[in-house]
């Protein structure tokens, strides 16, 4: 058909007075012109759209039907839609929908309205009140399936406009859709069987003479029989058959029209599920006894609409008011069955995500948690977390587990399924991985934790066992006790098997409020090829934890954070009157994003590990090396801003893990925390926690058993642990002396085979000496005084005094040639005599020195003498004695100290002794010890020993010094005095 012909037909329509002629012309246009895209364009360019609109005012129903059909086809073209809207087609269309009950006309009008709404929802929605009422009335009252389907379709496109959605809900459109879907999906055979069953039950009740409310008694008997007081794995297996949902209540419609209507309703419900519906809407739904069970029916293994139904349920779960409706429809069982069963059509990534969403949000209810556990979904989720490579999926599953942390049975089941090691693996990956994703998240997390304020109050679970110092007598052959026999474990104020009352999550530091936030991912993109590390996905949850949101708003915003526009995934029939028309889902209305979210994946892991360690019955995996080591790494990374330290505390308090803690050298790792300024306090607290267990009956006996065991490695670990954690000095003495722990420590350090035990033994000895025994070296105020000291630069060519009338003869040469003549050093006699009465007596008497003016020195070096004489000159001039010899001339300081004692110069002796302490280091400690032994200077001997025991020398330096002392002339004295120093401090408290 060409343009001229179209224009001629339109001219005939405009001028003809015979309605039959007009109808035939309109039919000609519909069948021959607007049947395809080219014809529609030709019709529009010929001015047909504007001319057709005036026919919508005609009361002739046959003309209206054909015109609506033509315009319905034309409005599959965007330009035609815009022209029709500009010519105010909506005014006429609204009147038709409100006033003409003819099903055919309503069907055509609804189709036309839907096509217009696809192009401009805002403009169409200006007539929202009238259109909302009219469409809801047609959906409810019409008996024609096609009419209903077109009305539902029109609503689907209009619902993206908030104004229309408001009136649609006001006129009970939501309720109507659910009722129609229920009537379509209801299985007639099941209805007959149900009526027969009710009749049979009634007859049986009369026959058996059952008294009133007998069914209630039977119900409670069944509940009592199934009380969850037995092992959950046995219980779950026995009652699993009672948890399966009934599938014969509904059936897929056999008539094609009914099936098409059901599919169109699903599409409309999908758009509705994207809206945030108010609580009164859900209350109205519940009062009208509308159910989601027909939607849940589509969630089955072989249903081709499974994906759409899952998405509807998942989206509705974001609405706080939908909780009861979803729970009563057994949506939780449907989602669990898909997750657990090996379906012929495997779940897509988006379907899996929707199932997890449903499980996560509905699991806040204890009954739903029981269904989830019985269905086997809890096991499946742990397996998925273990095997998944998707960061967003892992995060979603972790949010599911938050709701189960208060149920003992669920926690027991998860522990048996390996929850602990799965969490530890995820934590390890986060800490150690070099992946760009983890690097970015780790940096974000560290930044956020730095901003957190530390909680001022101590958490209830961080209370430590009091130290046990009373019973210090060890029986090395007696059976072990248990610290549990001394002190009962801490318990929460509420039952662990009961979910806490939902409240505001206001403080990140408040465990019982913050942790109970059942949130999951709801990424609305069903494209399985999406990248996991996309920044817009739910895994990107590393944000400020200090949010003030109620429980469900947190869930909704987390779900919304992950949502993206979604391509159509359901296969629903399109408009039959126009094969070229493309049906598109209306983009979902987006909830406002909220940037402050209270949780992220690491927070959840921290929360769950803490809850596991807090349980009375703890999992054996908590004592494994990877668990303890990973927790210590996490403490190093996050410090006190997270509660990994609390988790480790709970593990250390448990006596069943004490032996493993000792054998793994955990005490040494805790000691390393004390060397970090920010973590020192926490490190000491954790060591004190270990002390609580180590000093109780069980701990003492366990350490004693390990010290006398045949396993050398266990002996070493036990000896090292004793040094770190035993604070009771009588008990420490028993371990060190009777248990031979101190000898073990010394032998480890002396061993020429250096391994991890060497550093541990050195640190254990230092920790014990400094913090337990209180051994210390006199502290010299070096902050200001040290700045006043001058470096002594020795110049052998420089005379000691301008008037040298006496001399020193030095025979102890520093060179290798011992046969050289003595070195002569001149000095002023008067100055020397004024400094010391001993020199005065020697040089002004009948002694040989006085007659010859010479003092012969056989045990001192030139450097030592010259340093001493420089100090004499300074003292005579009343200057500060602030000379410091070079580091390699420590012996000169020792010689000057000895001469100040021999020649009785107390002021100089005091200053030089301070210098000996101030300059003490790894290179001269042994020299000081040997000199003090040779010269019987007990104070310096004790100082050298104490310095080795308590100084902060590096591990390598202490090992070198210890092994060098083994080859010293005074090696036996060295080791004996180390023993004596330690044991003397221990015995001091007896």
UniProtKB/TrEMBL annotation:
Positions with biased composition (Polar residues): 537-546
Feature: compositional bias, Acidic residues: 511-534
GO-annotated biological processes: anatomical structure morphogenesis
UniProt GO cellular component terms: cytosol
PROSITE patterns, alphabetized: BTB
Positions of region (Disordered): 472-546
Protein name stated in the entry: BTB domain-containing protein
Start-end of Low complexity biased regions: 478-500
Gene3D superfamilies: Leucine-rich Repeat Variant, Potassium Channel Kv1.1, Chain A
Domain BTB residues, every copy: 804-881
